[in-house]
Amino acid sequence: MALETSLAEPAPVRQIANAIAGWVDRLGAVWVEGQVAQVSRRPGLGTVFMTLRDAVADISVPVTCSRVLFDSLNPPLVEGASVVIHAKPSYYANRGTLSLAAREIRMVGLGELLARLERRRQLLAAEGLFERHLKRPLPFLPTRVGLVTAPNSAAERDVLENARRRWPAVRFEVAYAAMQGTRSCAEVMEAIDRLDRHPEVDVIVVARGGGSVEDLLPFSDEALVRAVAATRTPVVSAIGHEPDQPLLDLVADVRASTPTDAAKLVVPDVVDELRGVEAARERLRSVLAGWLAREQAGLDALRSRPALADPRSLVEARVTEIEQLRDRARRTLGHRLDRAADDIDHQRARARALSPLATLERGYAVLQDADGHVVTSVAGVAAGAAVSVRVADGRVHATTTGVEADPLETTGGTDG
Where does the Exonuclease VII large subunit C-terminal domain start and stop, copy by copy (predicted)? Predict the structure, then answer.
């Protein structure tokens, strides 16, 4: 019912706001199409706030939905996606704002296409086709670079010119294929297979310029993704520009943001490499010079030692030591010989003193009978017996004329 107001009886703000809320509530649930312009998820709240913008006019309306509904969307809802929302309009009287409480959200147009691509990406990722450990490193300097691109395209010129500018001797094996349209996927797969079987191709570049999502759709084809995953040759994906990311970028061994970037990735820069070689040569020279200087300093230190400066000094020192030892040995030997000679003389003197010859030399003699027995008593010798007298220098043979006994011996000695 329309409110009856007048200048004399105006309605208060709360009455008008409540009336508007009632009118909006009677509108019921509606289907609304638009583009998501802003998404806000506040921590601790079970509600997600969004802004839905009209695709043509500059008009937008706030939208709220439960966190459970928002999180259940596959693929996740992002800003810029086109959607159709089944929502209940509501008017918040306290702030005077109109919003839509979303009950269902569906992707449409490009959003639906992106949703299908996201589901395909999740399926292939679950199979492990995008795993990092499957990525193969690019060769430092490939023998030949395989290039899959459209004939006479800007991507072909970018790759060839930039690669040859970086490394003039680089060689290419170009396989042309349609890079857009219904025949694109099959031709690109055939070209990749031919280059993969080429014995000299060390890396394959798939290059195409930028385009819309629909134009780049062949490079997200499941058959193409699996064909690239099965190749033995490393593959570089150079599709579109930096924001573009078809599924080929995920399965390729290396992703290049542009065809020009792909040329920089597959071949080194000859100028940088020459600088690196020169820097390495200088470092080698410096290290070698330092090593030689250290070795020369060590050699000089060794040569400066007295033993090496004049090796004869060691011999001369030993000669002097040997001479001293020899003199000591001679003196010691002389002393020992002298002591031994003195000892011999002493022993000789003792032996001579005890020898019977020494007694004989003092005038004594030894008397022996004819049988050679020593005569110690006159009783053993008769007159006229042949005897032998042993003196110091020989023997005297004689015959006794008589025997005379010692009176003292006969009487047994004297008394006093």
Answer: 129-350
CA atoms within 13 A on the CB side of 68: 1
Tell me if the pTM is above 0.90. Answer: no
353 band by pLDDT with thresholds 50, 70 and 90: confident
Q: Which domains does the chain have, with CATH numbers?
A: 13-108 (2.40.50.140), 118-268 (3.40.50.261), 359-403 (no CATH)
- The predicted-structure confidence for 11-49, as pLDDT tens digits, reads as follows 888 888 888 888 888 888 888 888 888 888 888 888 999
pLDDT in tens, 133-163: 999 999 999 999 999 999 988 899 999 999 9
* Largest Cα span, the chain: 214
CB 100 within 8 A of CB 61: yes
Q: What is the pLDDT of residues 42-90, one digit of tens each?
A: 888 889 999 998 866 778 899 999 999 988 887 777 777 778 899 999 8
Q: Which is it for strands 97-107 and 172-176: parallel, antiparallel or unpaired?
A: unpaired
Calpha distance 193→235 (Å, rounded): 11
> Residue 349 has which token pair?
């003197």
- Dihedral over Cα of 72, 78, 79, 85: its sign: negative
Query: By three-state DSSP, how is residue 35 classified?
Result: strand
As a whole number of angstroms, the distance between CA 359 and CA 239 comes to 141
Give which of 21, 193, 40 is closest to 96, Cα–Cα. Answer: 21
Q: Contact at 8 Å (CB) between 220 and 248?
A: yes
DSSP structure string for 231-279: -SS-EEEEES-TT---HHHHHSSEE-SSHHHHHHHHS--HHHHHHHHHH
CA distance 238 to 255: 6
| 3-state SS, residue 204 | strand
Contact 62, 97 (CB under 8 A): yes
> pLDDT tens digits, residue range 320-331?
888 889 999 999
Q: In angstroms, rounded to a whole number, what is the distance separating the alpha carbons of residues 197 and 86? A: 54
User: What integer pLDDT is reported at residue 413 of this predicted model?
Assistant: 46
What does the alpha-carbon distance between residue 114 and residue 108 come to, in Å, rounded to a whole number? 9
d(Cα 246, Cα 117) in Å, to the nearest integer?
9
Residue given tokens 């020899």 in the structure block: 326
Residue 363 has which token pair? Answer: 């005038």
Q: Encoding tokens for residue 408? A: 């003292």
